[in-house]
Amino acid sequence: EDNTGTESDSVSALESFYTLVIILWCCIFTFCHFNLQKYNNLYNINNGLGTVSKVYQTHKKQTVTISVEVRYKTGSSKTLSKEITVNPVKFTDFSSTPIATYFYTGAISAYKKYNERYLNNQTLFSETTKETLDIVYYAFIVPKSDGSVSFQNVSYLDEVRELRNHNVRILGCVNGVGTDTSTAFKVITADKNLRKTFINNLMDMVEEYNLDGLDLDWEAISSSLKPIASQYNLLCQELRAEMTRRQDEGGSPYLLTMAVPASSYGTATDRFDFATLNKYVDYINIMSYDLNDTTKASHLSPLYTSKKDNGYGFGAVYGVNRISSLGFDKNKLIIGCAGYGKAYKVTSASGTYPALGTSGTLTQISGYDGSFKSGTVYGSTINQLIKSGKYKQYTELDSNGKVVGSYLYSETDKIFITFDSKEAVMAKYEYAASIGVGMMCWAYTEDTSDTVINAIYEAKNK
Q1: What are 380-438's pLDDT values in tens digits?
Q2: How wide is the angle at C-alpha 28 spanned by C-alphas 22 and 31, nearest 5°?
Q3: CA 288 to centroid of chain Cα atoms
Q4: Are 303 and 434 in contact, with CB atoms under 8 Å apart?
Q5: Rg (Cα) of the chain, in Å, rounded?
């Protein structure tokens, strides 16, 4: 058996073949060669040594057949074969601060267009990114009200799944954000038979695409389509049971995670029963972004609650304290970073933190391709604005001198941009590491400058 992927451990698996070959060679052998009947490149032989690729390992035992063909001087030949068992995939355990990111295929065209590394060598992930990440959520899996599911885009799944060879687990993210997908979640979770169909379809997809679990993203704010705690409990309980049924012992279990807003209404007890979910869910990704007030120049993704932005008063720390107080283990929480910014047009600015907390309107910044009418600004565009010399960066500190959040402000253009700066991300990592929670980003592909992942790498290795 070979479940480590190392060359040295595979020698014993071929020992009997080597012995046979040597005997035949000494007696009547002319030459022989090894032939591996590959199972999706799962097991590879190079120079007589076999290795297992984690990319193709599943959460069940698999068998591959290797064979040796012996050709005799008489012209006849014989093929001898042996099956090798490959154990379920086994990942290194997480640290107390696991690092995750959402890989949103809807923004991949922007990443490919603006990211400097991709433009230079067409790679989606740097070597330091491969070293830093523990989990990638591939978004999205789209559910329908009949329980059927489909991937929105699988074009980049092969390249993302290559990260498994770097000990990164790849999960499918199930969309429950928009009207149609939120409706699907509500309808499905209310019906026992639909739940069973939905769960089977999801797990069939996990097996088909060789994933390491699922992330549930039912988060609709609409009161008519919001998550229903009792129904969500049943979905997670039954999904966890099916995950357990479909995995063999000895490997890393499937992961079940979910995304939850870092706000009072987003964490309301009629939406989520955190004490019950704690029995079935491995991690909650706290969406500590999109926390800005759309009518005021306020922080998008603050760490601590701001006392100066006239916003809603939420943040990553708020989310951790809120969800853990409602019965979910703190060490299974993951705080969020924003891989994008939000731009406001403001009319006035003054004080230590100019424009922060003043009335504003979300705006598109003229002349910049990575800026949109929704106010969203991608990472590389933020870097361009900084380099223009027209914008100054400000970082709000609370009364204890701790980082709340960062923003840019142009006195000339009267534009305020809230975003997660390098300093803000590093402060989040220090907080997360100090209390033993993880970090994630929405979304890797929107952070076209790699600011968030590079700042995490620096904070982790400083």
Answers
A1: 999 999 999 999 999 999 999 999 999 999 999 999 999 999 999 999 999 999 999 99
A2: 65
A3: 15
A4: no
A5: 26
